[in-house]
Amino acid sequence: MATIVAEATGQAILHEEHEQSFLRKYIFSTDHKVIAIQFLIYTLFFLMIGGLLAMLMRYQIAWPARGQLPLGGIFPESMVASGYILPEFYNALVTMHGSVMVFLAIMPMLVGVWANYLIPLQLGTHDMAFPRLNMLSFWLMVPAGILTLASFFVIGGAAGAGWTLYAPLSARPDLSGVGLGQIMWLAALVFIGLSSILGSVNYITTTINLRAPGMTWMRMPLTIWSLFITAILALLAMPVLSAAGIMLVFDQTIGTSFFLPEGGGQPLLWQHLFWFFGHPEVYILILPAMGFTSEILSAGSRKPVFGYKAMVLALVSIAFLGFIVWGHHMFQSGMNPMLGLTFTVSTLFIAVPSAIKTFNWMGTMWRGNLQLHTAMLFAIGFVAMFAIGGLSGVFMASTPVDIYIHDTYFIVAHIHYVLFGGSLFALFGAIYFWYPKMFGRMMDETMGKIHFWLTFVFFNLVFFPMHGVGMVGMMRRIYDSTGYAHLQGIEDSNALITWAAFGLFASGFLFAFNFFWSLKKGRKAEANPWNATTLEWQTPSPPKHGNWEEVPVVYHGPHEYSHPDVEDKDWLAQNERPDVVSPAAGSH
Amino acid sequence: MRSHFWNRSAALLAVTAMAACGGGDGGSSEAADEAGEAAPAAAQVDPSTVGTISGMANFGGMVPEMAAIDMSAEEECAAGYGPDGPTAQNVLVSDGGGLANVFVYLSEGVSAAPAVSGAATLDQVNCRYTPHVLGVQSGQDIEISNSDNLLHNINATPTENRGFNISQPRAGITSTQRFQVAEVMVPVRCDVHGWMQAYIGVVDHPYFAVTDANGSYSIANVPAGDYTLTAWHEEFGTMTESVTVTAGGTAEASFEYSAEMTGADVPMGDALVLEHGTNRIRVERIQ
Fold first, then answer.
1. What's the CATH number where B199 sits?
2. At A581, is the pLDDT very low, low, confident or very high (cuts 50, 70, 90)?
């Protein structure tokens, strides 16, 4: 007969319940769980802002000649005039949609929320290694958000040189028409970079030093592996962006010419610096999602993750390869063909660990006892969408193909299959999956499933046709495609995409309603509603300050589902004593 | 009401943001504020003490041939011209020898000026600016509109004022801009259509005019007194005349141009700074 025994280790209880002021408990909190929830609210807000910017963009793309923007009257004349979105505002929309989604929504949601929430809980420790640094990493995001929003309302508007900030357009206000707005966004980027670096130091230190007894490297959940490797990537990549951003500010303000050819600078230097950060950033944006998916698929299939060690090695090799492929973003920028070939080959190599992961996810689900709850649906959706996004990425890895589709909507389709179909699907899955642990209540399953299917259908209606529109040659940042002879006939596709985008945005509100409604009305969650194995499920929902009465001891790997030696249930918690469960179970 | 709300919101957010990043925008607004303080005091002018300045800008000699503009890329615009097609507008001379598009303004002697009233307009018609040369008072609204159903951008590159670079993608769109500091002249161009060029003369009083197609101009309601009148032309530079305005009278001042003056130094972006107390305006090129 198996029973759960939360084993005492004899360690002193480090955290005692003590009275805290409201300010210290909820605002300037050093509790990793509160900071994670702060990040969650923050990032959901910016997810909505980023979505709103996208809706305005899509309206313009579908109906450039119509004018009469609904509610256009609420915008100042510098953004919308006579019902028309002005080209400079459109540039700001394109730029800030990408920037907000990458830096203020997806990245902090993947890392800021879940690394904060899950690392101490899944590793079996009381908090992060540096709780005050952790608090600082959140509060650095606040001025970044304020600067970002405020930049829309300064003269010249928000940054308009694209999220990639290519110089000299981004360095010379006389070219872009944007002065202060660009500087404000770069200042925001520096805050974000600092936040990310501080966070990464914390995640790495915590993972290395504060694992519970028995939590060996190869017993760490794949979520932790992915977050740990992501933190290393961020620690190495973000300083490059921050330094490049400061150099760009200098070019704009104090007359340096790092990226300006007239002063002896090199616009290509910006591209190298940006993409040296930018490609690892792509993996920062997808590796945690892979971790969540592995975890949810395993619990939802009631099977261990297929090929755990291969999954870890795949994560490590994707991270390593991620640093030597940045040149594939610059095939069109002028490059020695031999160098281009090198980047092509190294990029194609990434398909190998990516494929290992994809096949292992399918192997995990294969003949599993599938529990098709909302989190599981999103995780399965992630695998499917990531496969499409990954395959379209192979097109771009090849120089001759990339030259044809470079800077077209094909690229837009690809990045969204990875970043929305991949990262955001996994994030929705993660929220549905860990919400009960976070808030002690379940999200409504019916609403969740409707949200999934609406998201899945509308997402594909938005982004799949973009492949075709891109193949026809529609440029990715074009304000009005109707004036080009080669783009005649794609109006209906663009209108379809826009209607579907409205549906996709609207379905987000169902999620938001479910999220806030469930805080009060959701069914109360027990400690382990998914019968999952990792440590966070072996403490109450939500966990108290300090997480554990006593630090747990780990005896098993992270995903011990359907263990043959456990008879009366299909899961084995990491901290279940082997002699209580079964002698044989201890060997896993 | 709505624009008032946005202006205040923008100002609040901008202040917050600038405080947060500890920066400014290079100081152009400060320059504008300082120069604004030096503008002539708003004054009510007694109608019984004012007169008029009028005259001609005449052109003598061989009229330079204006270059043809190839507008074939914009059929909608090209259709607005006759069989000879559009030509440049640098030197427009009437049959009677009058030179159009000369900006004439009082450069010395103005001690006080009435407050700004009304708006100036700058339109884009058949891929040309109308008018080609525009005079405005500092702080006056400039309503820029697009009569062409295609995209123009309006890129103003002053040296003393805050520049702007805005777009108008369709017909019927208007945008209002202002220059706060006197500056002669502010070049305006459209980057989409390289031939589109206009000039805006900004002075801190309403005593200016632009010669019409016949080369004549008239500046009304000028307080009686002694003045220096300056005429600016985009090809022939500047020349000055002294005028004395009497109450109820009309002072005549004409300017004589010739082809030989082509290539003269054409002032651009000069700030006009009124010196209070000395009762004169100084034209000062900011280095």
1. 2.60.40.420
2. low
